[in-house]
Every structure is written in C-alpha cells, then in structure tokens.
Amino acid sequence: MTIRDQSTESRAAVSRADAAASISADTRAHDTARALDRQLEAVLMVADEPQSLVHLATAVGRPITEVAASIARLVADFDGHAAPDGVRTIRRGFELREVAGGWRIYVRATHDELVTDFVLTQNPSRLSQAALETLAVIAYKQPISRGQVASIRAVNVDSVVRTLLGRGLVTEASTDSETGAINYATTDLLLTQLGINSLDELPHLSPLLDGGTDGFEDLL
C-alpha cells in the first residue's frame, strides 16, 4: 500500500495553478498589446500630420509608456524585423517614421518613383470642386496649415489635402515650431499644369470675389 504525501500533492497543485495563472496573465497581456497595436495602426493610417506620443495616448486612452512600446512594435512589424516572440513579418511598402516630434506612416522611399508615376500618370482623375477650392486657398495663402485652410473654407479638408499631396500639387513646406502643424505650399507641378512660370502670374483676387478680398486676409 502506497501512502500519499498530501502536503507534497498540495504544493504541486498550487504550483500548477500558479503556472496556469501566469500563462493566462501573459496571454491576456499579449492580446491587450496586440489590440493596442491595431488601434494605433488604424489611427496612423488616417493621420495627415505626425502624431506625438501624447496625442496618440490620448486618442486610445492608454499610458504613454504602452503607446511608445506599441510604436516600437509597429516599426519593427512594418520593417520586417523579428518580434520578441521570434515571428518575422514581411517588409511593407510603407514605413512608420518619426518626423517633427511625431509619428506618421509614409510610403517607403524605395517606392517613391513608382507611387509618383501612378498618382500623376496612371490615376489622372479630375480634381473635385472641393479639391480645387482647397488648392486655390493654398496657392494664394502659402505657406498655410491644414487647420488654417479649414478655417477659411469652413469645412474639414483632411481628405482633400491628402488628395492634393498624392497628386503632387502641394507639398509639406515647413513645420510650425510652436504647434507642430505642417504648413503646405504648392509645387512646380501646379505651375506646369496652369502654364505659368511663377505664382506671381496667378490672377488677382479682387475682380473675382464679391467685395474684393475683404475678409479673406482676416481669416488667418
């Protein structure tokens, strides 16, 4: 007859329970981290300007330390580097880049020429009225931020500015040192499309607006 050591069995049971609890906690932490990665990825996909860690943390309602760790994982993921769990992803055609104190998704430099060709020659759709109006504001008021353009037009211009950037008609000219907002300006492509040599050849606004330019200058 075998006499069981109940104390030993009890300790073994406790050890197994602790191990199971530890595995469960690790699984929950992993799932939570991956969920945060996907949330930040979604936000960054639609961001027109670099997003600071503070702004991103506010958007997803998580601590800055967790957001910073998530950003590091996304950079490694997009670049095709091996994750801590040993899983290696495919190097994407886009990258997560830190610019002007914030993070934003950009086309990877190796594909710039291809994307430019696609936008300018393979996708020659006409600009919408909203895009034309936004382009006109940028042309006359440059350099100008997206928020200032929206103030003048009294509508959200996020998607329109993305379109103009994609078409190569405007570019990111500078970054405001105080607000971090990107200022936009027109490119030489616009001059080519309009058939002019410089912005000085743009028509004067006075004959085109009711009451001249009254109010236009005051909107900034």
Features:
Arc Repressor Mutant, subunit A; 2 domains; single chain; 51% helix; elongated; two-stranded antiparallel sheet; 220 residues; mainly alpha; 3-stranded antiparallel β-sheet
List the helices and strands and how they pair.
Elements: H1 6-46, H2 53-60, H3 64-79, E1 94-99, E2 102-107, H4 112-122, H5 129-141, E3 144-145, H6 146-153, H7 158-166, E4 170-175, E5 182-186, H8 188-194
Antiparallel strand pairs: 1-2, 3-5, 4-5
Helix pairs in contact: 1-3, 2-3, 5-7
Summarize this entry quickly.
51% of the residues lie in helices and 11% in strands.
What can you see in these coordinates?
It is a single chain. The strands form two sheets. Strands 3-5-4 form a three-stranded antiparallel beta sheet. It has a two-stranded antiparallel sheet with strand order 1-2. By secondary structure, it is mainly alpha-helical. It folds into two domains: 104 residues, Orthogonal Bundle (Arc Repressor Mutant, subunit A), CATH 1.10.10; 95 residues, Winged helix-like DNA-binding domain superfamily/Winged helix DNA-binding domain (Arc Repressor Mutant, subunit A). Helix 2 packs across helix 3. It has eight helices and five strands.
